[in-house]
Amino acid sequence: MRSAWILGAVVAFVIGNATIAARAAEIRLAEQFSMGYLQFNIMKRDKLIEKYAAQRGLKDFKVSWQRFNGPVAMNEALLSNSTDIVSGGVPGLITLWDKTLGTSFEVRGICALSSQPFLLNTANPDIKSIRDFGERDRIAVPSIKVSVQAVLLQMAAAAAFGEENYAKLDPLTVSMSPPDATIAMLSGAGGISSAFSVPPFQFQQLEQKNIHTVLSSFDVLGPHSFTVAWTSARFRKDNPELYAAFIDAVKEATAIIAADPKGTAQSWIGDTGSKLPLDMVTRVVTGSNVEWTMTPAATMKFAKFMHKVGTTRHEPASWKDMFFPEIGNLNGS
Q: 183, 175 in Cβ contact below 8 A?
């Protein structure tokens, strides 16, 4: 609740001070802790934004990179003008789209980055399904209530216990970054025995014989966008060359991932300082249920659920309502 209050206060502050002057050409990009942002790793490595911005005549501009844990922190950074383009799970985008709809600081999605499942793993041998969680169990998620994992857990609870009980498991959730959640699970620290995690950490957890998967997000929703990128209408309007350069950079980076998955895996390891083996990371990049794509998938399923349970006030008529028109020709959902 405190996070929601802070985000609401920041929204009110930004909307009430809507005449921030356009700054010098700069683009600041934010990602979270997972392998859902491989395009960003490639864009950094190959300086793709710089490449396409220079083609558009930009000379004096800066590209900088940031990392946050969870959508609340990233959305607050976007609203406070501390970053320009953020990325994460679909509910993070929907939350801010809903709060800013019709304002001078309206936020929409730019494109998707990937479609892949994330796993609810546990070290508790007695937990075979979400019905088995008790009041003493704790489930780590990147952000309570608003992260894609937290919302999927609500959707799973609604299916298992009835829609009116969609929040039944919310009291068990704890905000924790995926790396810290993995350490806690493997060590048993802090009473954390379960984590709704992200690749590659969810697979690192499963290397331990005492850890098993309770639920896949695909079991709940089918194939869905795991990561998307979003920004404000103001940034898009004030920085059209940088915005277009970003889209072109994502297109090329997505093609590079498909053409060179092992090199992509190596770039992720180098960018994050991971100690995971290259072969393991490469297997994650090329997983059978993994697709690196700019096309949004199942975003309306998230939006309809969040509106139905009262998390959001507005329900989009189409996925295109939540995204800027540059990707409107894609076969999204």
A: no
